[in-house]
Amino acid sequence: MKFVDEAIIKVQAGDGGNGCASFRREKFIPFGGPNGGDGGDGGNVWLVADEGLNTLVDFRHQRIFRAQRGQNGMGSDMYGRRGEDTEIRVPVGTSVINLDTDELIGDLTAHGQRLLVARGGKGGLGNIHFKSSTNRAPRKSTPGAAGEARDLKLELKVLADVGLLGFPNAGKSTFIRAVSAATPRVADYPFTTLQPHLGVVRVESDRSFVIADIPGLIEGAADGAGLGVQFLKHLSRTSLLLHLVDIAPIDDSDPVTQVRAIEGELQRFDPQLLARPRWLVLNKIDLLAPDQRDSRAREIVAALAWQARWFAVSAAERIGTREVALAAQQFFDEQRALANDTAEQELAGDSAR
Fold it and tell me: Which of 190, 250, 282, 313 is the most exposed place for a label (fewest CB within 10 A)?
């Protein structure tokens, strides 16, 4: 199925029902007084995260969603029925943006999470609310309020622990094939990956993490060049970045220059991405003679003044890929342990108080 990661929809909450102006009319009760009931509230529009969905393709066919209008009030003190809510199922990982203001309304990051995106209008008041000692026969009622209407932009960002980034043909698709069961397309020309792919890297039966293969970036990606920002944003939810670099490019391009170019695009798109943990993975060492691999890798690392972890691998031959997966799993194990310790300390502090 084609990965559709953006959609624009219109949501319209239900209007409130009108209040009723009526009077009690019964035999032998000539002055029964007002008995007009209130109108019902309009229905709300909710977005609900569903882990069974993985694309926004359905919103290509239906773009307008309306909740039910509230029922009008009636005589005999009968209030109108409330309008039914409308629930719109979206994939887990969907960001919701108000198209008019560019304001982020919310993120749906867990199955079953609900987000109110349009509130129904309040029902109008019947004339029973306007009676008083000086106005015993009020003929006043109020109409229901209009429900909220919004144009929304839905953005689906893949939920992954690790994001792969690098120039086209750096070997990202081959790498994710080597460490997971994902099967993205692989070919000997650039831009073979045109949509993100997710793969589960299972180190042991109960230890795993999710890795995302992001389409290759080029200079100017932050401004929309190539596949542009539509895929750069998928890196925003990852905890660790693996920067893949072709150690022996066939066009004699400089790996150091390529790394700096990608860093520049990350800086321009979102400086926080550049500050995120990022490991260097020098790929395609199988294209070098065995006695040249280590020296060439260290030469690139020295030229970059690289301080974080780095690896020299061959994704095609699956040399060194297991070590990268184990190191990444250890990274996440340490992150979870640190988070648990922090939570326990906070709980202990609350108990002491």
Answer: 250
